[in-house]
Amino acid sequence: MKPPPFTYSVPTTVADAVALLVEHAEEEPRVLAGGQSLVPLMNFRLAQPGHLVDLRRVTGLDTLRLDGDHLVVGAMVRQATAERSPEVALAAPLLAEALGHVAHPPVRHSGTVVGSIAHADPAAELPAVALALDAEMTVVGPQGERRIPAGEFFLGPFTTALAPEEILTEVRLPRFPGGHAFVEFARTHGNFAVVGVAALVAVEDGRVSRAAVAASGVAPTPVRLAAAEEALVGMTGDDTAVEAAVDAATAGLDPAGDVHASAATRTDIARVCLREGIGRALRRAEDRR
Amino acid sequence: MTELQDVTLTVNGRRYTLAVEPRRLLVDVLRDDLGLVGTHIGCEHGVCGTCTVLVDGASIRSCTTLAVQADGRTVRTVEGLGDGAGLHPLQEEFWDKQGLQCGYCTPGMLMRALEILEQDPDPTPERVREGIASNLCRCTGYQYIVEAVMAAAPRMRLAAPATQPTTGAQA
User: Fold this and answer.
1) Is CATH 3.30.465.10 the right assignment for the domain spanning A64-174?
2) Which of B44, B68, B69 sits opposite A43 (nearest CB)?
3) Confidence (pLDDT) at B1
4) Which of A86, A259, B17, B137 is the most buried (most CB within 10 A)?
């Protein structure tokens, strides 16, 4: 099918974009970045916004920069650009690794990093990355700018803490001094994953000093697996410690079964992804030293 | 009807200025407004890849791109491959190696293959196989498509100076 009719605006500043969302509030407006989630939904008429605010001409939103210990990704930075960026490789290699799993290159050429996070698909890779890294979301609305921690951002499937008149203008990813890994299981390469795992581990003096683990596809939102993190910290990171962390993480999981995988299968796949992800992050953390 | 938007596209070297409804998909504007029906419409949600075209040199799904999003940009479609007198080496090799049966996926496959070879003029078969995983073909099992792309690669390397795209040739 084709998108139903809507009115359209192309502002050049964030302030104008917010004003347009306010002005068209009655028409259930949506913000358009790369469109790789929104346009398919509009083609199927699962989304029927009365007004679209296209961010493509807003100055400053296509910048990808380092700000101290943070990688700052603007709302119009394409996934393919981030994937190839030396700044991302240096400051957020977890993001670069996860991007390789996001659909296929022709989709990543258009799709944006921030748009995928704002879309908040519980099976998507980038929300789990934001959660694992303790990202901060910079949000601009009629009352000005605020920052939302990733841990408070994802509220449900396709539902975030963004108000209807707010725009997610950038995502700030703190540098994690350690090893990383993004591991997922998908039925076919490039499809949405059944389960994905983002793992970050730092090692000091032979013991895990810090760990952050998040998973997609196991709950209505991406989830941090605090039990796994606690199980890892202070341990030497041998196979027994990894297995204990996997046990701790999956003990708290209660995924819903669906046509792609039953609840039990999802938990089993999560175990495999966790084992591989934590193990790879540990090896990389040790290699860094 | 919603207000029309002015859109300027340079398609296969030719510049077009159009007034389009914002809800129009790029693939529909290419096919219906410009008559370039080589680009096919398949799944309409970015999965199958038959609508793949190059925008500013990068492959995109024209079925999940609004025409307004391509305003001011340069588009290459399958019609831009041949020079009018003959087929492009990729097209000839698809023909020769039977890289198609029903042909529905072919315009997208050709444009994606073109991008792969422009990025990597001497790819391994594995690189080609992984690269075209973005596009679905239900007839060939992909093997003949990979063979066609591999056969086109050395021909495109030889012809490289002559196959540079000509843009802005005509207003």
Assistant:
1) yes
2) B44
3) 56
4) B137
Candidates 3.40.50.1580, 3.40.50.970, 3.10.20.30, 3.40.50.300; CATH matching B5-80? 3.10.20.30
Domain ranges of chain B: 5-80, 89-161
Q: What is the ipTM metric for this complex? A: 0.94
pLDDT at A108 over 70: yes
Q: Are B58 and A109 inside 8 Å of each other by CB?
A: yes
Q: Does A50 touch chain B (CB under 8 A)?
A: no
**A chain contacts of residue B69, beta-carbon cutoff 8 Å:** 32, 35, 54, 56, 110
CATH number belonging to the domain at B89-161, selected among 3.40.50.720, 1.20.1250.20, 3.40.47.10, 1.10.150.120: 1.10.150.120
A161 CB within 8 Å of a chain B CB: no
pLDDT for the residue numbered B169: 43
Asked if the C-beta of A259 comes within 8 angstroms of chain B's C-beta atoms, the answer is no
Q: Encode pLDDT of B44-86 as tens digits.
A: 999 999 999 999 999 999 999 999 999 999 999 999 999 889 9
